Amino acid sequence: MKKTLLITGGAGFIGSHVVRLFVEKYPDYKIVNLDALTYAGNLENLKDIENAPNYVFVKADITNAEDIYAIFKQFNFDGVIHLAAESHVDRSITDPNAFIQTNVMGTANLLNAARLAWKGNFEGKRFYHVSTDEVYGSLGAEGFFLETTPYDPQSPYSASKAASDHFVRAYGNTYGLPFVITNCSNNYGPNHFPEKLIPLFINNICNNKPLPVYGDGKYTRDWLYVVDHARAIDMVYHGGRNGETYNIGGFNEWQNIELVKLLCKEMDEKLGRTPGESEKLISYIKDRPGHDRRYAIDANKINKELGWYPSVTFEEGLSKTIDWYLANEEWLNHVTSGDYQSYYAKQYADKGASSFYGE
Ligand code: NAD
Ligand code: TYD
Fold first, then answer.
1. Where residue 16 sits, what CATH number does that domain have?
2. N or C: which end of the chain has fewer CB within 10 A?
3. DSSP-based helix, strand, coil % in the chain, nearest 5
4. Which of these is catalytic: 157, 171, 246, 295?
């Protein structure tokens, strides 16, 4: 094998697309997927490549420093692509400590393991940290996040990701660890856990359940198809400059309510419902505390430097995503059984949405 790469969080939403891309595109790389399999990690996401000769799965928790160092010694990695994280803002509001542990301490454990295992000989090595645009805070009606925008995280999730970004840069500056960081906008696509807006609403529309829109619904997000994020990660891993940050986004802003209406329209067509039927499920509920108003990425740097552009329009990506969920009812049933029900009840019960339960 030419290279051995560690991908953390590879059983999650974005990580599974990154693992698949690398396993299929680079048969001469050994791809080690390290994941703790939390509620968000699911090996069903990787069934199609689980027997590939260049793929290895290791169940481990990045908060366990000893285990992580032992895995680095065992595999002698050439590079790391770090995606493992607690990733949902609403959960970070209920339980911030889990985010501090995994996103901050877990990232520090990986940095320490890389530094020790590579023994200061960083030739040909790379530590790639996958981050979010949420570290930049919230925009008003105008403007975009640039790579130079000062960090101003507003939620426990974004604060923990910002802290982890700072640690990665600090290890680069202090120890010379070769790193690259990307900050990406909101992803959507197949295998997205149905706690985030798009998959949650697809699932609820299928089940004729209310669609819980926070606040006035005029919050804005910049949406990118997950496969395009994975393509960008491949390009940055192989072509990005050491010590640089690249913002990733598709210049694709949507107010939540407009997106939800488009989703309802598409779902009506695909489910053979009367036009307007799914929209009736929209239900405005109590806002998320500290809700960031608008995110929007300026992706000019990655466009110009690496020639990366999204491959699908939002309409195409959304249509593919809905088709995937409609074709993968079993996947959806598995991930929404058990703990999901109690999460859902707790998350939405005290927000003027009590009629959601006991139906
Ligand atoms: P996800 O929640 O779907 O998956 C996270 C994965 O990490 C899961 O497989 C989980 O089992 C694993 N994990 C969690 N804690 C772990 C631990 N302590 N040890 C080992 N593994 C652990 O997340 P995602 O949406 O795929 O996001 C992946 C990365 O991309 C995250 O770092 C996130 O901050 C970043 N990101 C996400 C988005 C987005 O829209 N989802 C946008 C930009 C950046
Ligand atoms: P989400 O998918 O949680 O991503 P993030 O908060 O990281 O951007 O939410 C996207 C937007 O949708 C955000 O403005 C919050 C809103 N939202 C709702 O209105 N209702 C919901 O049930 C959820 C989960 C999100």
1. 3.40.50.720
2. C
3. 45, 15, 35
4. 157
